Amino acid sequence: MISRRKNIVVVLFIGLCFWQSIVWIKNLSKEINLGSSDTLHNPGISVEASRDSHLTHSVGGTKDSLAEFITPKIHEIVKSKDKEVLLEETIRDALNSVREELQDGGRHVHLHDVGSVPSTQAYVALCSIFKNEHGHLHQWIDYHRWLGVEKFYIFDHESSPPLSVELEEFVLQGTVELFYFSGTSWQLDADRYNSSSRQFLSPQTWAYDNCFRWFGKRHVFMGMLDADEYIVIREGLEHGGGQRPDLRSFLRPYEAYGGLVMQWQLMGPSGHVHRPQSETMLEYMQCMPKEVMQRFQEFRNVPFGFTKSFTNTKHYMDGCNPHVCALDGAKYMNEDMVPVTEEVIWEVHWSRIVVQHYVTRSIQDFELKMERGSGHSKYAKLSKKLNITGRGWNYFLLINDLSTGECHDGEVAYQNCCDTGACVCTPRSKKKELEGVL
User: Fold this and answer.
1) Which range of residues forms the domain containing residue 12?
2) Burial of 255 (0-12, 13-18, 19+ CB in 10 A)
3) Which Gene Ontology terms cover its molecular function (predicted)?
4) Per-residue confidence of the chain (438 residues) as pLDDT tens digits?
5) Strand 124-130 versus strand 151-157 pairing type
6) Which alpha helices (H) appear in 294-392, and where do they start and end?
7) By the 8 A CB rule, do 378 and 304 touch?
8) What are phi and psi of 267, to 5 degrees?
9) For the purposes of burial, counting CB atoms within 10 Å of the CB of 269, is it exposed (0-12), middle (13-18) or buried (19 or more)?
């Protein structure tokens, strides 16, 4: 009797898994990219599913959705696996199996590709984690794609609405692969890094680790960049003529090293109270000069916190903070091919390439930024403990006061991008509300 009851329970369990699989996949096929608001323990599954949900299958002149012909495959795998198999594992296996059949079985697969570089051929890629960065991402992607970045891996941490709505066109092109995760699901992987030297400190470090582990072998270089950071190749920069720099050519000499470290230049609010109508690089010229940066206490205390990097993926070892990664013994170099140390960073090398960090933007933007909070929580807490800085209005005013220079190279670079048709230039704001006051 007990054995019969167990068999009944097993059958019911498998049936429930199968039913949930069908419902889950069908719902997923209706979502836009990664529009799900559910917590995902493994965002990698969601990304693959979201991309496949845009596949169409052509057989005999008809097109069937992925959800319709993947269902039997899920049923087949559920029957063949142990009753305790995770639903996520089942779905992953089914998706992979169907993908192989579509690619190897002589059937035609539509990827909605409009000419993007295949993932496995992209020389340079970016990893990023965003939360509620609506309104900034199109210009950020357009500009960095023009610069030479061929692939973007974006981790969406609880944006509302999900960034999939805004980034759909880039996902369909294959330019962006998008991961949505919510709550504290990133902490479920904490056991992967639990040593005294490396552990997941925040959603940001978790996202970067997964980005490098999952996709590093696809690319020669991978970088980490936030939505308020824009790379400017100053070397050879001239206004007009639609001049296009080439990040790939800039990075090639670093193939012999662990990667390139670039330095931040902090940009001030430029008198804006409200978010201006034009693009970031065209509206904010107020910047912190080199000599002021060198006296800035936070920079003196945490110099690596004022850098960003492109890592040579063959030297990536284990884990990254938001600025650099742990390497296998190889060295990061700066723009002058000098090994990077704190002393070298304090010298401030940014004549050839720089990351312009629009750390405040307008008062309106900064208020939203404070509501979002830090993506690298432990770094923020450590800074506060050391009394380095608080990311409140005092910090806003401090950056404004110290940004005594004007930098137009970002403006020139973005205008050149517009001149080639790769970027959109919106007419600029006619007046800055607090110009001469802030």
Assistant:
1) 2-110
2) exposed
3) glycosyltransferase activity
4) 555 555 554 555 555 555 554 444 444 333 323 322 232 223 332 332 233 322 222 222 333 334 444 455 555 555 555 444 444 455 445 555 544 544 444 333 222 233 344 555 799 999 999 999 999 999 999 999 999 999 999 999 889 999 998 999 999 999 999 998 776 665 655 555 444 444 445 777 888 888 999 999 999 999 999 999 999 999 999 877 667 899 999 999 999 999 999 999 999 999 999 999 899 999 999 999 999 999 999 999 999 999 999 999 999 988 888 899 999 999 999 999 999 999 999 999 999 999 999 999 999 999 988 886 654 444 445 445 544 445 688 999 999 999 999 999 999 999 999 999 999 999 887 655 555 555
5) parallel
6) 297-301, 342-347, 363-372, 377-385
7) no
8) -115, 140
9) buried
In a domain, 409, yes or no: yes
Residue 193: how many CB atoms within 10 A of its CB?
16
Please indicate, yes or no, if residue 433 is contained in any of the structural domains. Answer: no
Which residue reads 């401090």 in tokens?
A: 398
CA 88, CA 97: separation in Å to the nearest integer?
A: 14
β-strands 221-224, 124-130: how paired? parallel
- Specify the number of domains making up the chain: 2
Say whether both 136 and 19 belong to one domain: no
Is 424 a domain residue? no
Tokens of 331: 């060295």
For residue 6, the number of C-alpha atoms closer than 13 Å in the C-beta half-sphere is: 4
- Rounded-to-integer distance, Cα 304 and Cα 320, Å: 12
With tokens 């110290």, the residue in question is 402
Neighbours of 186 (CB within 10 A): 23
Rama region for 278: left / alpha / beta (φ>0; ψ in -120 to 50; rest): beta
Six-digit token string for 244: 């296009």
Residue the block writes with tokens 């990351």: 355
Query: From CA 75, how far away is CA 94, in angstroms rounded?
Result: 9
Q: Which of 130, 204, 203, 212 is nearest to 167 (CA)?
A: 130
Long-range contacts of 293-300 (CB under 8 A, 24+ apart): 293/265, 293/266, 293/348, 294/346, 294/348, 296/402, 297/388, 298/383, 298/388, 298/389, 299/346, 300/346
| In contact, 356 and 412? CB cutoff 8 Å | no
* 37 φ/ψ sector (left φ>0, alpha ψ -120 to 50, else beta): alpha
Nearest to 403 by CA among 265, 229, 227: 265
Same domain membership, residue 172 and residue 72:
no
